[in-house]
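[09:14] KT: can someone run the structure on this one? pasting the chain below
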Amino acid sequence: MTRLRPYLLPIAVVVLVGALVAALVVVLERERSTSAAPVPTGEQGPAGLERFYGQEPEWTDCDDARCAWIEVPLDYAEPAGETIRLRAREVPATSDDVQGRIVVNPGGPGGSALGFADQVASTLPDDVRDHYGVVGVDPRGVGSSEPALDCLTDAELDDWTSVDATPDDEAEQEALREASLAFGRGCVERSGALASHVSTVEAARDLDVVRAVLGDDELTYYGASYGTSLGSTYAALFPQKAGRLVLDGAIAPDLTVAEGALGQNEGFQRALTAYLEDCVRDDCPLGDDVESAEQVLGETIEALDSDPLTVGDRELTQTQAFYGIATPLYGEQNWPLLTVALGQLLKGNGGGLLQLSDFYFDRSPDGSYASNSAEAFRAISCLDASGEPAPKPAEVERVTTELSEVSPVFGPFFAGDSSGCDDWPARSEAAQQELDVAAPGAPPILVVGTTRDPATPYEWSQRLADALDSGVLLTREGDGHTALGQGNECIDDAVATFLLDGEAPKDGTVCEE
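[09:31] RB: done, structure tokens below
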């Protein structure tokens, strides 16, 4: 009998370009801004938190931006105790007439927001950039914030990313369960109390300190993917401080592990079908029609379970192949990379898929990991889910069957983890499951969903918009994860107008391809 794994969420908004594999680098050609650094609001903040809300960080130049450290309590229940530091990076407004700052988060959980600020700034039109700085803040425990969450050595992370996620017998199930437990124990042993204080609720409370330090009476925010969960949590906790919030590629509130697995399984299957329909139109290495191509793909991936491919001094396992296939499905522009990698795979070369898997986990060619995104992803996900009861065996059996029926390629991976977050050793008092995200009294909150989004299915955006008292749903018809900056002028204009003027589109507006 299996338990459902924590559902796969993107570590960041993934875009791949060029040869296998290079990350999109946005080069901003702009004159250095003359706009002034943020000036805190000077507000007192809640009792006991006065020194955090009233702090005045020193902003220093960092490339074409400016950076600062923002101090927050490790534990909001003990504000006089240990503190941690969040790293903030602002791409300044391009004029002196600054109306505020747009705080951004790329998702994950575990994605660094520092470089994401450049990406968002490059997407927004000049009239928005004239009046708004764009600020990326690495959440607690993530990226450049200090201390950063640490759970495993690089060698142990290699073992984790290649672990058999589709166990065939009790021995393999126990090995997977033990690997998950070792991961959690590593977080506690290597990061101490921080491992119990990286919840989304605490990160959202940090955002309110950030808002005050940036000098804004209300938070203006753009969150992608998991960033929508962080944004909706903020709105729930601080509805009177919520300003213009844009939640793109939304996660539905109160998702159970089973619902998350079912939703993403269906989402990735939609994306795979769309990819295969495109692939078979022109010399697809998998075959001439979608049905046979999917069958070949499934059989090829299944063969890796017992016979992984040697790639230099490493191996391409079935699990890594899964991530290698899933990663380019985040964006239609990445499909040619997947075709090349699958063509190699059918010739016995797993190098392309292994590179794509490494990209997902931020693994460098020298074997080091460029960030702690993989560790933060699991630690935050499991901490948020720590109050959720384990599903009953009958429910697990039903969901497992449904997963495989919907997607023979992806279903086994979503169903295969026998451990999930069971027995995660870190615990949080900030229970995400108990949060009501209705945010009564908040102004319009813009929720943006893409109809064939693989990682955050469109139905989740619908659910979040419905759950928010002031939710406004904006729909992008198309493929890929999230909507802003994907070449849909209707979406980009609507988001820009909302951020600049506070004018939301009509609820239910659909932007076609």
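[09:33] KT: thanks! Residues 1-6, 9-31 have pLDDT under 50 and may be disordered.
[09:34] RB: yep, looked fine to me
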